[in-house]
Specification:
five-stranded mixed sheet; globular; 27% helix; alpha+beta; Helicase, Ruva Protein, domain 3; N-terminal domain of MutM-like DNA repair proteins; 22% strand
């Protein structure tokens, strides 16, 4: 599942590529993903509205529209968004034919990018045209680009909400402090942990109601870099270890954002390209390989039904 760095990368991309565009149409090939109302209600609610910007809250993506409406997108396990020029438009065939017949370029050829479930058709309102011919073509075209939702497992969610009610959504209201929020200080981190003394640290870092944004990938990396066994109880942690975890949380998350996320599996950016952080992971998904610090074999264990990767020599 895309975590904070991946969703932040997508939001940043959308602000560069589609901010200011107008939604002129929308197609869905898996209408079960549209929540909070019918497909027709969703369609009527978004067509004709201008995209004012994209933002991230936790692992959730929001696209704010004119007129006080916001599209809420949860990418779930395998979802990601692709921005394509109109030249790569779909025809009127069924979904399988659309994928086969689409004019793909570069990373869009990759199979992981071809599970298109939803398509937003966008009209560029900010195009800087060089010639009258270009201007004429643009004005006469129905749309200039598409925003497409690729989702292999079809778990993704799309919902139209009132912008002013975003923070009141149940899944947003229950979120803890975001790790990239300036309010997330080492003092607050210690206060959060103080309330969870009997819990194991591996679970606490993943609890979105306490700290928002850390997922399975970065939990493994943070604990490894801090030399902390994920099964240790919070009550057993020294102040120096907590401070080290806080420092490494910020360092690793910021590095992952800079490197445009981790493409461990299905995640891709809006150009269809993989993130680069996977090249720098030290334990995650390296079961059976040698630890990069001490040559001990990395192991995969389960905590709360989720896998975590550790080096038993480096993490105590």
């Amino acid at each position: 599942m895309p975590e904070l760095p991946e969703v932040q990368t997508i939001a940043d991309d959308l602000n560069k590529k589609i901010k200011g565009d107008k939604i002129v149409d929308f197609e869905s090939f898996w209408k079960k993903s549209i929540k909070g109302g019918s497909f027709d209600e969703f369609l009527r609610g978004i067509v004709g509205r201008k995209i004012e910007g994209a933002r991230r809250i936790g692992k959730n993506l929001f696209i704010d529209l004119s007129g006080g409406k916001t599209i809420y997108i949860h990418l779930k396990m395998t979802g990601h968004l692709l921005v394509k020029p109109a030249s790569m438009k779909h025809g009127t065939q069924n979904m399988e034919q659309k994928i086969q017949n689409a004019k793909q370029e570069g990373y869009f050829d990759e199979k992981v990018n071809q599970y298109i479930r939803h398509v937003f058709y966008l009209k560029d309102q900010n195009a800087k045209l060089k010639t009258t011919i270009q201007k004429s073509k643009l004005l006469n075209a129905k749309y200039d680009k598409t925003l497409e939702f690729s989702d292999l497992r079809k778990f993704g969610k799309i919902m139209l909400v009132d912008t002013e009610k975003v923070m009141k959504l149940p899944e947003i209201a229950k979120l803890g402090t975001d790790v990239m929020d300036e309010k997330f200080t080492v003092k607050l981190f210690k206060e959060i942990l103080k309330k969870k003394q009997k819990s194991v640290i591996g679970n606490v870092l993943m609890d979105q109601s306490l700290i928002s944004g850390i997922g399975n990938i970065y939990r493994s990396e943070i604990l490894f870099e801090s030399g902390v066994d994920p099964k240790r109880k919070v009550s057993e942690l020294k102040d120096s270890e907590i401070e080290e975890m806080y420092k490494n949380t910020l360092k690793i998350i910021k590095k992952a954002i800079k490197l445009r996320g981790t493409s461990d599996s299905d995640y891709r950016d809006t150009s269809g390209a993989p993130g680069e952080m996977h090249r720098f992971l030290k334990v995650y998904n390296r079961e059976g390989e040698k630890c990069k610090k001490c040559d001990t074999i990395v192991k995969r264990k389960k905590i709360g039904q989720r896998s975590i990767y550790i080096c038993s020599e480096c993490q105590k």
